[in-house]
Structure formats: C-alpha cells, structure tokens
Amino acid sequence: MVHPLDLVSDLQRRLGYAPPAQVLSAAVRELFPGRVAVVSSFGAESAVLLHMVAAIDPAVPVLFIDSGRHLVETLQYRDRLANHLGLRDMRSVGPTAEEVARLDADLSRATWDPDGCCAFRKVAPLERALQGFDAWITGRKRFQAATRLDLPVFERDATHVKINPLASWNTADIAGYVAAHRLPPHPLLAQGFRSIGCAPCTSIVGAEEDPRAGRWRGFDKVECGIHLPAQHQIGK
C-alpha cells in the first residue's frame, strides 16, 4: 500500500508542473474517479476552475460552503454560473440550524470571533461533506496571499489529498482565460471587491492593496480556516 505522503510526493513530481487542465483530467479520470470533489466559493475567480472541471466532467461534485452569511450577489452568481456551465452535482453544505442557534444566535460572532465563526460555519461543514471522498480540488493560487506563496499543486491535509491546479496562475492568466471563454464575472467585481467571502467580513479592495486585503479587516486573519489546521473547538 502506498503511503499517503509518498503518493502526494509522486503526484507532485509527475504532475506538479503540468497545465491545469492536465492535472484536473488526471485527478478526475485516473487518480480519484468518483472520489474527488471541487470546493468552490463562487467568488471572484471561481469561474475559471469550474469551467475547466465542467469541460472534463460536469458531473463532478461541486461543494459550495453556504455559511448562511453570504452576500446575495454571491448566491445569485452561484446559480447563474452553475447553470451556465451545466454543473450537474451542486451540493450546498453549511452549519445546522442548531449550531447557528447555539453558537451565533444574534449573528454577531463574525465581529468579535471571526475564527470561531468560520470554524462552525465553514470548517466543520466541509469536513462533514468531504467524508467519502479521497481528494478535493481548490482554486487557490500563490499570488493571493503570503500564506500561499509556496503552495504546491498536490498536498495532503489530515485525511485527503488536496489538489491546487491553478497554484502558479496570476491575475493575467485568469483574466485571459475568462476573456477567451467569455465567462460571466461575479457582479461585485465591478464594485471593487476582489476577494469575496461572507458579508460581514468582505470589503472593497484598493488598487494598490493585496487582493485579499478586504477580508477580515481589522483582524490578524487571512484564511477562513478550511486550509489551515483547526484551532477552534466547534462547541465553544
């Protein structure tokens, strides 16, 4: 039996510098057939990855973490883009009503404990949704944040292989692909939102700012937590 870390090292060696479409085709058709999902925020850059996946197999499961705090424009864009691309297995995952009532009844938690809010609204639901899968695909890219500068195409979390086919892409690559395939943009891009998350924790980004500067302003936080080791107990 191949050790998980050996598997990731081998995949990185063989496919770590391959074009994104080749990485995705290998993951969906050869490496993890029926056992891989795409996790998408339907944010500012999500159309590129989803278009590539749909071209390979529109029936690949797409997991959308519905935190319950999304901007209405994101929910509308999710439905429009999924229909445009013909995605056939869309799954919304999020906190239970009991969790919301117990952990954020007044919907203020994002203002005083954004880590805890993300933990029960995003991290825990995704962990539940990924049960039954061996791997998941993300749209992360190295240029997006300092925490992603060394992002490999293949990595391992506690239980899954994570695949980042667009890791090496930059803003020009993304813009070129969107234009070439005439992909519909997120409606908030035109208003200055360059990284789009939940409504309480998303703001407009200045031209000279990091693309993710508009997330969690005022807090020492740059990731929601689904790509980092868990630091909060769900019951706190």
Strand fraction equals: 5-15%
Largest sheet: 6 strands, mixed
Strand order, sheet with most strands: 3-2-1-4-6-5
Q: Indicate the mean pLDDT.
A: 89
Task: List its traits.
236 residues, alpha/beta, six-stranded mixed beta sheet, 8 helices, 6 strands
Commentary on this structure:
The model is unreliable at 229-236 (pLDDT under 50). By secondary structure, the chain is α/β, with parallel strands linked by helices. Strand 5 (154-156) and strand 6 (161-163) form a beta hairpin. The termini are far apart. 37% of the residues lie in helices and 9% in strands. It has 8 helices and 6 strands; from the N terminus they run ααβαβαβαααβββα. It has a 6-stranded mixed sheet with strand order 3-2-1-4-6-5. The chain has helices spanning 4-15, 20-31, 46-56, 72-85, 97-103, 109-112, 114-129, 171-181; strands at 36-40, 62-65, 90-93, 135-137, 154-156, 161-163.
